[in-house]
Structures are given as C-alpha cells and as structure tokens.
Design a protein that fits this description.
- In the central section; belongs to the 3-hydroxyacyl-CoA dehydrogenase family.
- Pathway: Lipid metabolism; fatty acid beta-oxidation; Lipid metabolism; butanoate metabolism.
- The chain is of the alpha/beta class.
- The protein folds into three domains: 1-265, Alpha-Beta Complex (2-enoyl-CoA Hydratase, Chain A, domain 1), CATH 3.90.226.10; 321-506, 3-Layer(aba) Sandwich (Rossmann fold), CATH 3.40.50.720; 514-641, N-(1-d-carboxylethyl)-l-norvaline Dehydrogenase, domain 2, CATH 1.10.1040.
- It is built from 28 helices and 17 strands.
- The strands form three sheets. It has an eight-stranded mixed β-sheet, with helices on both faces. The protein has a six-stranded mixed β-sheet with strand order 1-2-3-5-7-9. The protein has a three-stranded parallel β-sheet with strand order 4-6-8.
C-alpha cells in the first residue's frame, strides 16, 4: 500500500507552533498552539498528513507538562483552519489508504479533548470542515464576531465530516442544529454561517469583537479556569433523535431522491452519536469516510468545486480587463418583476444610480415600490443599516421617458420576449445614449445579432442573461453577437464581477446554454408523455440523478406559456431535434399553470390534456432517451463553439440549472454512465482513476 504521505506530496503543510502564554488573573500558563501554513489569508490552512503530524508533534511536546493550566488553539490572521487537503484525498486508490486518512485525523484531533488540562479553541477566522472539528474536540470555544464562515461542507462534496463532526456537534448543539449544519446547509448551495450565528447556535461558548479577540479570549479562559465563569452544557441525548433524523431523511429524499449517499451516511452517523462511545462513533466515521473516498462522488464533487472556484473566476474567452469602461449609471428598460430584481442588484453591488422606465406610471410605481420594499426587508433582517437602506432607495428611481438614460453607461432591457419589441426598444435607447453606452439584453433565447442589426452601433450590444431569482442564482450568461466588440464584452464581464456573478462567455446561438439544454431535455420527457407514457412515470424517470426538481415541476415553475414559446423558438432553429407539443399548447390554451394542483397532487383536468398516446415507454426508456438527447445536444453545441469547452457547459448547468454538484456536471456524468461515446473528458476526470 502506498503511504498516504506520498499521496499528499504537494501538501502545503499547516505547521502547529507552540508558545507559552501567562494567563491574566494568575490563572497559570497556557500552551498556545498556532495553526499557520505560512501564507496569508488567501491561501487558508488545511490538514493533510503533514499538517496532522505537525499538530500531533505539538501535542507531544506539551504532553505531561505539569506546569500547564490549559492548552489553546488559534489560527493565523483571518483563518482558523478550513479542513482536509482534498487534492491528495482525490488520489486515494485503496480502501486502506482512505481508512488511514480518517483514522489519523481522529488520532490527532481527539487528543485535544483528552488532555489532562482543559483545552480552548479560539476561532479567530474561517473554520470549515476539519478546522471546525478541531474546535469541537476542545473543551471550550470562543469565536470572533467577525468570522465570515463556519461550516461543515463535506456533504456538498460527497463526503461526511470524518474527524469527529458527526459525533461531537449533535451532542453539543442537538441533532436538529447539527443536521442543519452538516446536511441542510451543504445541500443549499453550500450555505455557511457567520461567527455570530455560530455563537447563537451554541457552537461557541463566548464571542468577542475582532479587534482584541485573542486578548479577550485569554481573559475569558482565565476566568473559566479560576471558576469565575461556568459554561453549562445541555444534555441533548434525552431528545427524540429518531424523529429529528427521520424528518431530515424525508427532506433529503425530497431533495435528492436517494441519488447521493453522503447525506444519508451523515444522518446515520448523527443518529449513532446519541448512544455510541467516542471509540465507536469515531470508528464509524472513519469507515464511512473511507467508503465515500473510494467512490466517484468525491471526484465529481471536487470537479464541480474546481469549476465554481477557479474556472468561474477566470472565464474562458473573456477580453482583457483593461478594456472595460467605467459604469457610473445604469438604465433598466421595463419595471416588471425581473427588471425590478435587476435594478436592486445593480444598486446594491455597483452603488450607482439606477433608473427604470416603463409605459405607464402605475407599472413604474410598482417596480420602484418593489425595490423599496425589498430594501426594507434587508433592513429588517439586519443586512443593511438604516443609512444604507436610505441610500439604496435614493439610487433607484423611475422615468416614463428614456431621456433619463442620456448619461447612462449601461442600459439593459427586460421587456417581453419578442424580437421586434426588443429591436424597437434598442432603437429608442440608442437615440438618447452616448456611443459608448453598453446596450445589454436579458433575452433568454433570441438572436443578439438580429436584435442589433438595425442599430448605428451594433458593436455595443451584448447579452446579459440572468436567471431567476436574480439575487440568488449565481450564473450570468454573457453573449457575444457577431459584431460585439471587446470593449463592450470586457465591460459586461466587469459588471458581472461587480454583481458577484459567475459569468460564462457564450456564442450567439438559440437559447444559449442552459435554456437550450433544458428545453431539449424537457422536450424529450414531454414527448414521451405525448406518445402515451403515464405522466407520473415520465416525470420521475430521472429521480435517480437527484435533480433539484422533476421535469413537470420545472414546467410549473417556468410556466407552460414560456416553455411553449421557447420550444417554438428552438423548433424554428432546429426542427429535427426540438418538437412542439400539441398537448403543451392545449395546456396553455386552457390557462393551466401546469399539471400539478396547489397541494402538489396531479391536476386531473390538466393530465387529461396529455392523454391519447398509444406508444408508452418505461421509466428506464424515458431516462435513456433524455440522457442520449442531452449527450447529442451538448456535442453539437461544442462542435458549434457555443462555449469554449465542456467544462463551461458543466459550469452553466451547475450554477444556472441546479445540476447536482455531486454528479460533477453533465458531461462527467454522461462519461461515467457510458452514454457519451466518445467521452467528453479524459478518463479519471470526476471519477475514480481506472
């Protein structure tokens, strides 16, 4: 068996250095361990075999010292520690290696909870994964109110907290809160909590401000040691863990439909924590971690993680940043819901004036009113101060004429999805703005080149396709028309970065990336129903993928009329691959919002509109039909140069369509399942090396 240290040959070792600190109030000497990989906060401290060994040696150095009153652990500035070094973990090829990683982490970390003296974790910065587990092993914890991220994100990557998290956290804060941090948050776009939230949840025993955090933490530790402060612990083992876990399993089933093993293993471990000894619980964690390290899911999760953390920050094909023009005012054509959401986002992120226009005062007032109401909600949640709220409201105004755009640098339209309407809008805007003003369109499917054809300056038209809800969905498809110039494109990418969106450069092609793939996918499922497949069979045929919603639930969200319009647009472009369902057209004509009633039961009347076919398919046949269609469409898109590479397709689907993170994107999944022939990506990418 290869030694695990060889797998982590490129590890940036987090060193554990020890210094003695004389505690105030005569409380004695503390051995303070500092975790630091030698880099600034942009390269957080992680744990591979080298880092674990260094911490173990630090604990060896203080073991048995009779002069110590306590042991403390703190991180480098802004970072406590952020977990395991997963680059080496992805190289694991044998179960014994995987088991050794889990066992080593437990052997080292548990020492902090089994010392002869109390241990204190001073969480001064981001604490994630194994970093948070270090703190959980300590007897006491303080946290800085400025900590930006506290999380156990392992389930997000297809793993479980494997160094004590599933055993220690539920005993500390109760099973419900533990499940939220270990499972619910990772499955909700890897949500993290802040220092104040961690303190409120009971993860930390005391909280101090960042400016004098360590000093105050040492004073607090001294008072604990002197008996002046008593930390009470709630015994959560008496709670009904079974019901809490069962409820959580139901929610996980609703979200993943059994597709991802990690959250289910995490639930089993959390339930075990109520009765298991430390030895039993830690061994169960190591065994679970070893099993998951040997699967495709971790590699797929790491592939997805690399896309959203690296590729998204360096968009393929984006022009040089220096070409971007400064944006000091934004115009939004339209005052509907999408336009209003965009206006609020521009105001919050760019902090520049934003003016909405529409056809009548009532619509305009409704749009501006929406923005002001959302700002009030932010104020109520404490996300903005009173002064910030007033400034945001003042930045967003309305006008009945487009003359208000005269000094705008960036104008985006969000009007009805009709080419002629959009052409007219741009002609009116061009008449009043400067020659350098960027004209952006939020179209989801129409040709950018045709939209710009009648303008004096078609080179300054760019696609800027948001996804709904605008504030939440991270993807921004930036579309380059035939005549879009580099300065316009660079400005669009600059604005996208300022909006904190992940931008992908897309060629001007029908429906671009996400809507094109989803429309093909939906078309195949709807087509199977049209042919006679029972609606429920077709709708649940792809449950095994763990998609965020079934096809007909997605239809309900998008709206049948919108779905029909996009299908008609795609059919006009690619009639051999995209059909138009007559049954869907009847659903629209009947005014139905979809096939489901408000209580999520099937609407019998709506279902009858899809009856009449005589060639039903099995669920497996529907699944293969949909996946093969995806494979074909993606290959055609890559041949057409719609995006630079398969990775951009995967990035778009993960961030714009909620394609499950644990699958590693569309193309790796199609590769692993043998649907893609030839493969989209080299062997071993997002899968266990052969």
């Amino acid at each position: 068996m290869t030694d695990i240290k060889e797998l982590f040959a490129d590890e940036v070792v987090t060193r554990a250095t020890v210094r003695d600190v004389e505690l105030p109030y005569g409380a004695g000497t503390m051995a303070l361990i500092t975790l630091d990989n030698g880099f600034d906060h942009t390269k957080p401290s992680t744990f591979g075999p080298g880092g674990l060994t260094s911490l173990n040696e630090a604990l060896d150095a203080i073991a048995g010292r009779g002069d110590l009153a306590a042991v403390g652990v703190v991180g480098k500035p802004f970072i406590f520690a952020v977990g395991a070094d997963l680059k080496g973990a992805a190289m694991v090829a044998e179960r014994d290696q995987a088991l050794a990683i889990g066992t080593l982490g437990h052997q080292v970390f548990r020492r902090l909870g089994e010392l002869d003296v109390p241990s204190f974790a001073f969480v001064n910065g981001a604490a994630m994964g194994g970093g948070l587990e270090v703190a959980l092993h300590c007897t006491y914890r303080t946290i800085s109110s400025g900590v930006p991220a506290v999380a156990l994100p392992e389930c997000f990557l297809g793993l479980v907290p494997g160094w004590g998290g599933t055993q220690l956290l539920p005993r500390l804060v109760g099973p419900a809160t533990a499940i939220k941090l270990i499972i619910e948050n990772p499955l909700s776009q890897n949500r993290m909590i802040k220092g104040r939230d961690a303190f409120a949840a009971g993860i930390a025993d005391a909280m101090f401000e960042p400016a004098d955090f360590l000093e105050e933490s040492l004073r607090w530790a001294a008072r604990v040691l002197r008996g002046e402060v008593t930390v009470s612990r709630t015994d959560h083992t008496a709670e009904d863990w079974s019901k809490t876990v069962a409820d959580a399993r139901f929610l996980v089933d609703m979200k993943l439909r059994g597709a991802s093993p990690a959250p289910y293993r995490a639930l089993e471990l959390i339930e075990l924590a109520r009765t298991a000894s430390r030895e039993e619980g830690f061994d169960a964690e190591s065994q679970a971690l070893a099993g998951l390290l040997m699967g495709d899911e971790l590699r797929a999760g790491l592939y997805s993680f690399d896309l959203v953390q690296r590729r998204a920050k360096r968009p393929a094909g984006a022009p040089d940043k220096s070409l971007a023009r400064k944006v000091t005012k934004v115009g939004v054509v339209g005052a509907g819901l999408m336009a209003s959401q965009m206006a609020l986002l521009f105001a919050r992120r760019l902090e520049v004036p934003v003016v909405l226009t529409d056809l009548d005062q009532a619509r305009l007032d409704k749009g501006v009113g929406y923005v002001h109401a959302e700002v009030d909600k932010l104020l109520g949640k404490g996300r903005v101060s009173g002064d910030q709220a007033n400034r945001l409201k003042a930045l967003v105004t309305g006008s009945l004429t487009k003359d208000a755009f005269a000094d705008a640098d960036f104008v985006i339209e969000a009007v009805f999805e009709d080419l002629k309407v959009k052409q007219q809008v741009f002609a009116e805007v061009e008449a009043v703005v400067s020659a350098e003003c960027v004209l952006a369109t939020n179209t989801s499917s129409l040709s950018l080149t045709e939209m710009a054809a009648g303008l004096r300056h078609p080179e300054r038209v760019v696609g800027f396709h948001f996804f709904n809800p605008v504030a939440v969905m991270p993807l921004l498809e930036i579309i380059r028309g035939e005549k879009t110039d580099d300065a316009t494109l660079a400005t669009a990418f600059s604005v996208g970065r300022s909006l904190k969106k992940s931008s992908v450069l897309v060629k001007d092609a029908p429906a671009f990336v996400v809507n094109r793939i989803l429309t093909r996918f939906m078309g195949e499922v709807i087509g199977a129903v049209d042919e006679g497949t029972p609606l429920e069979v077709a709708d649940h045929a792809l449950d095994g993928l763990g998609l965020p919603m079934t096809p007909f639930t997605l239809l309900q969200l998008v709206g049948p009329a919108v779905a029909l319009h996009v299908a008609e647009t795609m059919h006009a472009a690619f009639p051999s691959r995209y059909g138009v369902s007559e049954n869907l057209a009847r659903l629209v004509a009947a005014g139905k919002p979809g096939v489901y009633a408000p209580d999520f039961s099937l609407d019998a009347e709506a279902v009858t509109l899809f009856s009449g076919g005589t060639s039903p398919s099995t669920a497996e046949e529907v699944r293969l039909r949909a996946l093969r269609a995806l494979e074909e469409e993606i290959r055609i898109m890559l041949d057409e140069g719609v995006v630079a590479a398969a990775q951009d397709i995967d990035l778009c689907m993960i961030l714009g369509a909620g394609w499950p993170f644990h699958l590693g994107g569309v193309t790796p999944y199609l590769d692993r399942t043998g649907i893609a022939e030839p493969r989209f990506l080299p062997p071993g990418v997002a899968s266990v090396p052969a």
